[in-house]
Amino acid sequence: MARTAWRCALVILAGVLLCAAVETAVAAKRVSIPDDLRDVVDDEEDDDWRHWGAAAPPRDDGPPPDLAGMDPAALQAELLRRHAGPSFGFVKLRLGVRRSQEEVMGIATRWTNVLRTGSVAAKFVAVDFGTLMFTMDRGQDILEVKEFILSQPEAYEFKIGNQAFRRPGDPPLDEVVEMLQKQKSTMLSQDPGSQQYKSKVEL
Question: Which of 34, 75, 122, 193 suits a disulfide with 70, CB 3.0-4.6 Å?
């Protein structure tokens, strides 16, 4: 009987010590914040937080260039660089590649999402099987969009207004269309009994 009482006393003592240890640990984790915060120094805000929501300062592109002495290509590049309003343009995809409607829509969606990760708000939509149209609210991002598009393997030509941009060494669009039509005619003349080549190059 004495042994049983001794064991019960040890179990009760261990339980009391365990509860006291848990209470101490919980009390140590609590941080009390007083209601009077006059003596607290708040130095966690950085400059970005203080200026959050303020209008962006105007871009300083320096003095305007002398337009009279510029050649047309440099003039167009300068106008494109200083563009600030909404913009839209077209992208011709590589010709001679068959694409389904889902593939073209997938390219447009992928490009929109990739540019959004770089905080460029451009939206691409499919016009036909070989052309995408893009719209953007901030025209000052047009050079980033141009660089991005010309770095994509599916893109052939980037067109905004009357200006068309291609990778260095790529022939003009008319030459590519003519070359594809010649290939098509030689394929048909070599094998006249074959099924007619039905792929249409969208312009």
Answer: 75
Secondary structure of residue 98 in the 3-state scheme:
coil
DSSP, res 118: T
Q: Over the stretch 172-184, which tens digit does the pLDDT of each residue have?
A: 777 877 887 887 7
pLDDT tens by residue, 122-139? 899 999 888 999 988 887
Burial 58-71 (b: 16+ CB within 10 A, else e): eeeeeeeeeeeeee
The pTM score is 0.54
What are the domain boundaries of the chain? 80-173
93-97 own/partner pairs: CB under 8 Å, 24+ apart? 93/130, 93/131, 93/132, 93/154, 93/155, 93/156, 94/153, 94/154, 94/155, 94/156, 95/130, 95/156, 95/173, 95/176, 95/177, 95/180, 95/201, 96/176, 96/180, 96/201, 97/154
